[in-house]
């Protein structure tokens, strides 16, 4: 659907800027994620590690890497930090998916015991889940993986597809995969590092235009999660609208990587959050292709992968996406036209919840004008001082 991008009032711009700020997670959460994955990586490299000889590398993927993580809907929900443990010196020919997952599982369980974690380690479909102490509101999913760059490059080349991001591709485990328990070349594919670099290219290009020359070098070297652009803020707002709308229909809600990918494609380099949000909403469905009669949302780092591959088997998920998109358009396009803060808050509250909408209204009263020429370079002085910030990644939880 081709829609015209409406004019947005200054009041609505201020409000949406305040809304994004209300959704930002505390810098301490990023630092907590950083400490957790670095600590686990150090554990795998200790002298008695059973996997040390495989050169395990642990890195974060998903929203904590991309800078699109948002506060949970309520205190009962947890922050989900997605990470990868890539065994650099293992190959598909030497073991099965099952074997790889069990080798990592031994170390995950030993780490939990050593650090006095009372909650049992859980096995997910693709990962191991470390549950931190009560009150931490935090768990870490660790996906075992091995390098798959060479194979990925050959696969894409055979189909005449872009191989720009192939070098960082990995093969991962999946309990539901047909070859899970046998040695095989057929493993599920992923490329979280490649995805994060693709997303970063969208973020850095815009942020360098937003800031003065003297700080552009800082942007180049800065971890993506510490940069704040209208694209990231708009994605955060859309994710909260999605979460609120599907709070009681979680199995149907559009997955984050679909929202993030379509938003990044539709983003036109707008320099304010409101303009970015409206341009994304009016154009994001144009990047859903039709291939052999089915919807296809390409992974930009693996054009053979379809992020909407579950839609044919679960048509309710496709319907839910378009239901959400229609409602988000209605809510935010209405808010964009309004000039009275209470009316804007009322329009947005339907999609994000009354409590959050009211907090944004209060915050907006203290904002002068939409931030166009200044950049949110560092989220806090504590983040700036952190010497161990090296988050890497990307993926389906983006």
UniProtKB/TrEMBL annotation:
It catalyses: GTP + ATP = 3',3'-cGAMP + 2 diphosphate. Keywords: Antiviral defense, ATP-binding, Magnesium, Metal-binding, Nucleotide metabolism, Nucleotide-binding, Nucleotidyltransferase, Transferase. It comes from the Bacteria. Residues 56-142 form the Cyclic GMP-AMP synthase DncV-like nucleotidyltransferase domain. One of its GO terms (molecular function) is nucleotidyltransferase activity. The keyword Hydrolase does not apply. InterPro entries: DncV-like_NTFase, NT_2-5OAS_ClassI-CCAase. GO terms for biological process: defense response to virus; nucleotide metabolic process. This is Cyclic GMP-AMP synthase. It comes from Aquamicrobium aerolatum DSM 21857.
